[in-house]
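A note from the maintainers: we've had questions about how concatenated examples are separated. There is no special marker in the raw files; a new sequence line simply starts the next protein. For clarity in this README we add a label.
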Amino acid sequence: MDNLNSLRLSTPPAIFEMRVYIFLEYIMTEETSLIWNPILRQYLVNAPHRMNRREGSTSCAFCDDITEGRVGPDQQVWLHPNDFPPLKPPVGEAYVVIYNRDHRRSFTQLNVKEVYAVTLLWRDLYRELATRYPTVMIFENSGASIGQTQYHPHGQAFGVSVIPPILERELETVIEADKEGLGCPFCRVQAELFESDYQVAANTSWQAFLPPYVRYPYETHLYPRRHVANIADMLDAELLDFAAMLLQVIRGYDALFDGAMAPMPYLLGIHQLADSRFHLHVEILAIGRAPGKLKYAASSESLWGLWTNDSSPIQKANELREAIARMQI
């Protein structure tokens, strides 16, 4: 605090108070990584130490967990603390979720039982992080074109001390619907899309849709049939069906146009909250829009949030549904 004391001695009181506020704001954001945008009224994460991570590295930190004895010989899935965490306690925590011991396998090469083991780990992780944070973000970035730098099969998870803007807006919709006595808005959407031309797959516990309001041509939303707020409340049988549904949809992407879009790059995220009125759902943003072409977030989308989908959702749902039908799990 020497800098603060020298500032006090050399500055008039009013200006001193303003500069102290700025100084403390700087210290806080340096420590927490959360930066408040006063115009949009939302936080963003500042993490300059992540600029150069493992690009160009020939070693695999996750294989090192095996060779250096940090995981047992029979352990297939595990958590690896993020080596370059964008968030640190008490603001947040970051983990890498390892899907399989085999470095060479992709998610689509796993079987249902192996993906089921991943979903069980997701459930355990949510239960742990939810005791400390209001938001648990479980997600995956798949494909070099969207920034994947490690190819050992894995996803990620953040525990976050704030609710991100999209989750916050979804929760606001849920709260408003509840106030008006309309029930769960997600359940209503699910009922409207059930067995419609927008449905691409279904099993005992889950349904997958390509809704009319998707931003990406093959963006797919997965809903559990039962109203459940988060993965902590899901039954084992529901998680097994979840594993099967994930494989169906993502393998379906790779089967589009007879494999001409494989491997499909995608962003996957589980939307969930502790509020019992919320409805867990999964969004998979498939970045490919046609063979050899990607969907980029352009100016109207990135700068204003006005998305353009240059395709017919019903047509793309039909293409994906047919691709899934050709696949065997």
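[label: protein 2]
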Amino acid sequence: MTYSTAAAAPVNPFYAARTQRAAGPRRREARAPVYARLPRAPVTASPVPHLTSLYHFDRAGEYGDRGYPGNCGGNLIKDLIRFFRARSVFDPMSGSGTCRDVCAELGVYCYSSDLHQGQDACDSSHYPRGCFELAWIHPPYWRQKLYTDDTRDLSRTPTLDAFLDRYRLLIENCAGALAPGGKLAVLMGDYSDRESGYVPLVYHTKRLAFEAGLRQSCTDIIRFSHGAGSGKKVYRSSFIPGLQRPSTHPNSGGILGRSDRSSGRRGDRLPGPGRLVPPTPLLPSRS
């Protein structure tokens, strides 16, 4: 059976009429804000009702140093601490001290350290074990941005395989620092590398976290990237811009992590109730 399309009426006559118009000079459109209506969230017993799988907060808050490379706002960290009711936080990649500042505001114990202070987050021998209720990390997205000249820096690894080897150690270190039932939150994003092409770092984060014995305990949280420098740039290449960071995944990278397993030994603690013992004195993070 054959069909003739010559006499068939167009599906959308208004569209057909537009295609027959003479093309006029193209005008450069002003980049005005675009607003999208998000789905209505259900009412739950959550202590943080606005915390959903789509996270929007265009104000960074007074946490850390916004001029620090790779700095992220502290509101998501604060909401995760409040939601999981964490009383102790492991922050081995403190950067400018965003997580530390949030914990100080909430009155939550925070073990804060950084490579700038000589502490390698991939070396578990420098950190307490099995005693934190929440771990927060915002690792480099491989070599998208270079942070230090230190060869231990994840952003200085020469290949993706080398990065993933070091990243595995970081996730295993965080998993080992958690108390039974503790959770790991990782802020991670994919990016396109000039040599290696598109690098799915969120996928690798989850894979490494699951291999470390962690399991997902809540939905992925997609964090809108307000204030990203790329939003002010003009690129000659054609690509689909990423406007989000697939943030926290329970016990896996890019989302929040959770561990119910016991390490087989008691966590490092002081004789006093609820006090955690860092292996070395806490050092102030570089601001």
